[in-house]
Design a protein that fits this description.
single chain; mainly beta; four-stranded mixed beta sheet
């Protein structure tokens, strides 16, 4: 007797993903290609995911168009993928997708103080700090006004250099911060130049002679030079 062995659908037994990482800020990026292990040769499979940010297109697990991930918010994402064969049998597996940290560059600069007294050579204006979403990134600073420099994170006048309120009551200084990867951000700060009393520096007398015997005579007019 020849006994026919009926082919019963056994359903998928495994899912593979060719890659399990994606860079942050990469909208619509493809993660990897999905494949299903199924003893029923030639069976077809469709896929579904439990995270609405993802979809499967042409067998590829990807982020939906316009959607990206943020490493600083979540360094990895768990995505459950379900494969369904032509007979409706299913198998599910959860994949951990690593979110790559991409340098995003600084986004802001703060200055703790924005004023300096006139005639204060080499004076410190204030401390600079940079806003950067990449935690732990380092930053260097540069300025566009040769009278200033940044030392140890402090914006200051160079040694021996001072400002004069009477010639400029404020100074605009552009500061550029650069992170360890070379990304930059620039911001212009208006530094107020404080008016310090400098005292008189000269006295003038319009005339320096008087006739004898001229009781109560006026010698001349006095005037004071003061910046």
């Amino acid at each position: 007797f020849t006994i026919a062995v009926g082919d019963v659908n056994e359903g998928p037994s495994d899912i593979s993903l060719s890659n399990a990482s994606v860079d942050e800020n990469s909208a619509g990026a493809v993660v990897g290609t999905l494949s299903t292990t199924d003893v029923d040769a030639g069976d077809s499979h469709t896929y579904a995911v439990d995270d609405a940010r993802f979809e499967v297109v042409g067998g590829e697990l990807k982020l939906k168009d316009g959607v990206s991930l943020d490493h600083e918010a979540e360094s990895s994402v768990a995505v459950e993928v379900t494969t369904t064969d032509a007979s409706g049998a299913t198998y599910s597996e959860t994949f951990t997708i690593a979110v790559g940290d991409v340098n995003e560059g600084p986004s802001d600069i703060s200055l703790s103080n924005a004023s300096v007294d006139e005639n204060a050579a080499g004076a410190v204006v204030g401390t600079l700090s940079t806003t950067d979403v990449d935690a732990g990134d380092s930053h260097t600073y540069a300025v566009d006004d040769a009278r200033f420099e940044v030392v140890g994170g402090e914006l200051k006048l160079k040694d021996g250099v001072s400002l004069n309120h009477e010639s400029e009551s404020s100074v605009a200084v552009e500061v550029t911060t650069t992170d360890a990867s070379g990304a930059t951000y620039s911001e212009t700060f208006t530094i107020a130049v404080g008016d310090v009393n400098e005292g008189p520096s000269d006295i003038s007398l319009s005339n320096a002679s008087v006739d004898e015997n001229a009781a109560g005579a006026v010698v001349g007019s006095l005037s004071t030079t003061d910046v």
